# Entry
Amino acid sequence: MTEQPIIQAARNQPVQTTPIWMMRQAGRFLPEYHETKEKAGGFLGLCKIPEYGVEVALQPIRRFDLDAAILFSDILIPAEAMGLELTFNPGPVFARPVRQEADVDALIVPDPLSAMPFVMEMLTTLRQTLPAEKAIIGFCGAPYTVASYMIEGRSSPNLEHTRTMLYSRPDLLHRLLEKVTATNLHYLQAQVRAGAEIISLFDSSAYSLPPVAYQEFALTYAHQMISALSETGVPIIYFAPGSMALLEQMATLGAQVIGVDWRIGLGKARKRLGAEQAVQGNLDPAALLGTPAAVKEHVRRILDENEGRPGHIFNLGHGVLPSTPPENVETMVAAVRGEI
Ligand code: CP3
# Structure
């Protein structure tokens, strides 16, 4: 079988048409997502009942013929498997955040297959259901990001508890990061065995760190995961939104693809990352709230900035916004494929 376009682009090989998928493509901007979420009894039901998770993962492929389906789950599902009680409303809430030595000690490193069988079941079904040319994306959170949610207990703009621990108990933060790294590594290895063909590693809290702390508390652990996964042969997309000041450091990770957000031009980001580094991005998600003409214009601008080089996966610069009109996504896909 010839490789899927996303995999070819991730390997910096030439492709006929720029491949495209969207972060949060299975989500609240689609009416059919809300219908299935209702049937599943809420967001966690979608994550844990394979029939429903597979359905919402397939919905954006049916509508927009995107080049890949992403596993339906959340980066915090493995944190729950480590022993933390988790709810979503709609953001994640941990009943008992991890703040003290005893909280870190109590966390387990679970066996992914027995703790999260529903994830592997979804991946296997997705691979059996989708045509071979569509890729299956597995994912997890990068260790610093998952640890930050465990420490804060919820989304938090300043990550004050996390950064307090970093500067007062760096040893404790390292112990937590080691447990999260081990958990997520086993988890991703299980995802690859179950059918994931490319992996997305989300480091959404990295923006909070200065370069030296980013190196010590985020990059080191993300690098460990990427190195250990290299034996699977599956390409990895590393994405740290809001952290484009750290691009040169990200280029040292050995990830096949670096995600680029919309706050920097794609051409400039590629220059800073180097010619060998494939990239993903970077349409402003808000561009999909404008007119079809604006969508087309901004897609064109990004393709122009790429100057026809190999190694570009088209995506938004972060997740699709819930108020996005689905017609604008159709326009974006057609513009990327040169059909309009
Ligand atoms: O379609 C997909 O992209 C696959 C599924 C997916 C979800 N979350 C489902 C989801 C993926 C890949 C994620 C990743 C994720 N989750 C990240 C990293 C990427 C990023 O956005 O920076 C983070 C930080 C989380 C944690 C999380 N989950 C937050 C902060 C929130 C609330 C904020 C928000 O966007 O609503 C969630 C909830 C969540 N995860 C929803 C979905 C579809 C919304 C749930 C709902 O329907 O109510």
